[in-house]
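User: What would this chain look like folded?
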Amino acid sequence: MTDYTPPKVWTWNKANGGTFASINRPIAGPTHDKELPVGKHPLQLYSLATPNGVKVTIMLEELLARGHWGAEYDAWLIRINDGDQFGSGFVEVNPNSKIPALMDRSGATPVRVFESGSILVYLAEKFGEFLPPKQPARAEVLSWLFWQMGSAPYLGGGFGHFYAYAPEKIEYAIDRFSMEVKRQLDVLDRRLAEVEYLGGKDYTIADMAVWPWYGGLALGRQYNDSATFLSVQDYENVQRWAKAIDERPAVKRGRMVNRAFGEPAMQLHERHDASDFETRTQDRLAAE
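Assistant: Here's the prediction, encoded as structure tokens.
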């Protein structure tokens, strides 16, 4: 309990503290002029390897693995803690100033696509992959995709923030969001007891959207010791699904792109060619 009483009218008069305080503000729009770089491929991705960013790099690598060479892409690192997402060029691509953002320059008129779920649907429809064309299978996949879009803020902005990042531990907040995240894990576990993948028998954009968030949690990769705290090992079907997707070669590559934290061998800050995975990771660059 605290002695804080909300004022009648809220005003922004101090930083809110916590790990990501520097990127939070109550207004939109750019803070500085900065054009975005443009590479050689039709698809230009501006991102960071957060769960939302990883969704899209997994999708692009999976498309390439299926032989869709039109999915070749340049991936540019957006350092959100440095405020890159508030540059004028980025805001032109995504007025919401959140990663990831995609520009498709394959046609006469460039197309901007923002919000990770929207990007997944756009790429699935563009290349005819990972999204069933017919009902009811299509509806099932889209339902799980949008389940993730609506549910993950409770995991990241709710549980993850108050458990791992907030400047103080608040029992009420941690209890509230822990309860909801465990309920969400149970939703997934019950579904995955019935089917191999979230949409059914086939791997789809629903799995690509959910896995970086809940698969990462199940595999103990998020929010310090949260896997122990939430007893994620109890969700056996989620564990099976998370481990199977983790072994996919395209997923392993997708996790590396725009990664600027963790082991240097897993960090590929920018990706402009498939060979970059073998030559441009941070450990190899440091050895040059």
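Residues 125 and 131 are 7 Å apart (CA to CA). If you want, I can go into more detail on any region.
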